[in-house]
Amino acid sequence: MKLSQSLSRWRLLLGWPHRVSGRWPPASADAAQPVYSAGQAVQRIPANIRGRDFAVGDIHGCFDELQAALNEIGFDTQCDRLFAVGDLVDRGPQSHEVLAWLDEPWFFSVCGNHDYMAWRAAVGQPFSPVDHRRQGGEWLSALSATEREAVAQRLQALPLAIEVATSAGWVGLVHASCPGNDWHELRRLNLAELDSPHSDAGQCMWSTRRALTADSSRVRNIHAVIHGHTTVGRHLVLGNVHFIDTGGWRPHGYFTLLDLERLAPAARVTRSSMLPA
Ligand SMILES: [Mn+2]
C-alpha cells in the first residue's frame, strides 16, 4: 500500500478530514487558545413524564428538513423533547437559525466537531488544523459581530455529553465516541485537550473508529449510547451503541428520529392515523 493510501486510511479511521490545512499537531503555542468551557461536560436530564423523547443525528443547518421529519412523527412541542447529537451548523443553508432552535425548551444538543469549530471561528480564534470555511463554515462571515457573539455564547454552552433518563436506564448522547468504552470517563475529561482529536476529549467529537471497524463491544456504565458524526445508510447498532446520522443534511439522506424509550426509529404518523377515532 502506498504511503499516501495508508495515510488516507488512517485519517478515515480517526475521522480526520482529508483536507487539512495548517500545522499538525497544532503548536502548543496556542497559549492564547481559548478553552472550551461547556456549562458542564455532562448534562443530566430527568425522565420525560409527559411525552416522548427522540434523538436526531447531525443537522448541519438543515432545519427545514428536520422540521418536516418532526411533523411526520407528530412531534408535539408541548410535551415531546428532541436531543441532537451535535453538528447543528455548517454545510446546510440555515445554520444561522441555530439560535432559534437552541432557544426552544424542548430542544437539547451536545457539541459536535462543527459546533466546536464554529465557536472557535466566531470568537476570532479559528481551530488551526482545519479550514472551517471550507468545511461549510462560510455562513458565519455573513453574520454581524453581535450575531457572531451570540452564536459563540450558545455553542460554547453546549455540553460534551447528555444523559437522559428512560425507564430502562440512562441513555447517553455524545457526538462521535466514548473514550475507553466507559461512560464514566466523560466526567474525567480535560476540555483543554479538545484541540487534539487523539486526546480522550477530542475523540468525543472526532473519532469514527467504532463504526469503521464495526466494533461491537459495549460501553460500560450506561444503558445505551447515541452517536452521530459517522454517516450511515440506516440506523446502525454496535453493542449498545447507536449510530443515527443517516445524512438528513445530504441530498439523498434522511433524518432518523430515534425513540429513546424503544431505542428504535420513530414510526411516521400517517394521515389516516391522525384522524380522530
Ligand atoms: Mn461531526
Summarize the structure.
With 277 residues, the protein is α/β, with parallel strands linked by helices. It is 23% helix and 15% strand.
Calculate the terminal CA-CA distance, rounded to whole Å: 64 Å
CA-atom Rg in angstroms? 18 Å
Largest sheet, in brief, is: 6 strands, mixed
Low-pLDDT sequence parts: 1-31
Number of helices: 8
Instruction: Tell me the number of strands.
Output: 11
What is the H/E order?
A: HEEHEHEHHEEHHEEEEEH
What is the CATH topology? Purple Acid Phosphatase, chain A, domain 2
**Average pLDDT number:** 86
| Heterogens | manganese (II) ion
Main-sheet strand order equals 1-5-6-7-9-8
Which homologous superfamily in CATH is the superfamily? Metallo-dependent phosphatases
Measured as a percent range, the helix fraction is 10-25%
Strand portion, in percent?
15-25%
Shape summary = globular
Q: Please, how many domains?
A: 1
Q: Specify the CATH architecture.
A: 4-Layer Sandwich
